[in-house]
Specification:
By secondary structure, the chain is α+β, with helices and mostly antiparallel strands. It has nine helices and eleven strands. The strands form three sheets. Strands 6-8-9-11-10 form a five-stranded mixed beta sheet. The longest helix is centred in the middle third of the chain and has 58 residues.
């Protein structure tokens, strides 16, 4: 749609105000005079011509009475009836009689009276200009121009602004399908486009907020359920100890070990939940420092080594190049440890976990591959969802909180990188990620 700036529109309106009255004036002048030429003496209409001829005839017929007061009074009355004035001059050039003539507003008709070839006198007849029609046409043209401009302004300016105001009210009432009117005025069109972008942004923000709210409710419900299970078991064993059910020392030690295990499970769940919620806040500042990702990977391997040894799982670490990044070493170790813990949990006994890390251009890339069953097709898109545990074998009994993968993804993203999950072509799960490197 072609648009027009307001200042250009105002110039067009001004030009229209100036041209329309002038065009109507020319039209009225042509209708009255029959020509578009402008002269000092406008053409007289038929009635004025008859009056003029009558006065000239009266003056010419009474040349010998020009100085007679009675006749001058009679001539004055005739002139007043026609709104004309006259000046009578003798042959010698001496003014004999004159009525009050306003030369600024009258045209002058000059006559010379001759008799026997000699000048007997001169007449100057002052005729009033009759421009009433032209003046009226200018006034009408000005009013018509104002009317046309007011209608154009209503169509081009006022109505689009009114519709935009209505759209804002509809948006404020919660109606996201807001009809946004178009406009031929560039400034209003720019406001319309900005308003459209704002509506789309608000719509996206609203959908995201709704999604986050649903996720929050789900997390609260799931965490409440996950907290209830170990708490119920812990309470039961503690009541058993209190009631003396564990009569032997061996049974008492077993009850205490179970209570310790459940307490540790609660601690891990609360710690994961705290880290997960902390990653959601943009105000949370990373402790940025230069970090060697080789060191982070080695420390993470050491943290899961006991769990891997219990299942006779071999962890192979292949580190090449210089893998230096900037970030929070503690959080990066937490992210890698969660990934390794997940790999150990779902790798069968006597399996392998292969870790690789290298630097490519401006990225530090790492992969974690195991020899487990890998991810099911319907799990790949949900691996990093909070509290998602995949197949039935991946439930609370395995010890996972369901937040580890989500926490790892958010930590890597807070460091400007990305984390992906896939199945390796040789079998097993494949977790790959990258973080911007420090040059």
């Amino acid at each position: 749609m072609k648009t027009l700036r307001i200042r250009k529109l105002m110039l067009l309106f001004l030009l229209f105000i100036l041209l329309l009255p002038w065009l109507l004036f020319l039209t009225a002048h042509y209708i009255e005079t029959g020509t578009l030429r402008f002269s000092a003496a406008p053409l007289l209409n038929e009635e004025q011509q008859m009056q003029q001829n009558e006065i000239i005839g009266e003056i010419e017929a009474n040349m010998d009475r020009w100085s007679v007061p009675e006749w001058q009074v009679q001539l004055k009355g005739l002139l007043d009836d026609t709104n004309m004035n006259v000046s009578l001059v003798s042959a010698a050039g001496q003014e004999i009689y004159r009525t009050n003539a306003d030369h600024r507003y009258s045209s002058v008709e000059r006559y010379t009276l001759l008799a026997d070839g000699q000048i007997k006198g001169k007449i100057e007849l002052y005729i009033p200009k009759t421009n009433q029609l032209q003046v009226f046409s200018i006034f009408i043209g000005f009013l018509l121009a104002l009317f046309v401009i007011s209608m154009a302004m209503r169509h081009l300016l006022i109505k689009p602004l009114e519709k935009l105001s209505t759209s804002v009210r509809l948006l404020a009432s919660g109606d996201w399908n807001v009809p946004i009117p178009a406009s031929h005025i560039k400034e209003i069109a720019d406001v319309r486009d900005a308003f459209d972008e704002m509506v789309q942004g608000l719509q996206t923000s609203h959908l995201k907020q709704t999604s986050l709210e649903e996720e929050r409710r789900f997390v609260i419900a799931a965490v409440a359920h996950d907290l209830r299970t170990p708490l119920f078991a812990l309470r039961g064993y503690l009541e058993g100890l209190e009631l003396g059910i564990a009569q032997s020392q061996e049974k008492t030690a077993k009850y205490v070990a179970v209570c310790k295990e459940k307490a540790l499970q609660l601690h891990r769940l609360i710690e994961d939940l705290f880290t997960f919620s902390k990653m959601d806040y943009s105000e949370f500042m990373l402790i940025e420092e230069v970090v060697n990702l080789h060191t982070v990977l080695q420390q993470s391997v050491e943290s899961v080594a006991p769990s891997a040894q219990q299942k006779n799982i071999t962890i192979n670490l292949h580190l090449t190049g210089t893998c230096i990044v900037r970030g929070d070493a503690h959080l990066l170790e937490r992210a890698i440890s969660n990934l390794l813990d997940n790999a150990v949990r779902y790798t069968p006994d006597f399996g392998k976990i292969i870790i690789e890390c290298n630097s490519i251009t401006d990225q530090v890339r790492f992969t974690i591959r195991d020899t487990g069953s890998g991810f099911a097709e319907n799990e790949l898109k949900r691996v990093f969802e909070p509290l998602f545990r995949g197949e039935m074998s991946r439930n609370r009994s395995t010890g996972g909180s369901g937040l580890g993968m989500a926490i790892s993804e958010r930590i890597i993203r807070r460091h400007g990188g990305e984390l992906m999950a896939d199945n390796d072509t040789r079998g097993g799960a494949l977790l790959s990620g990258w973080i911007p490197s420090v040059k």
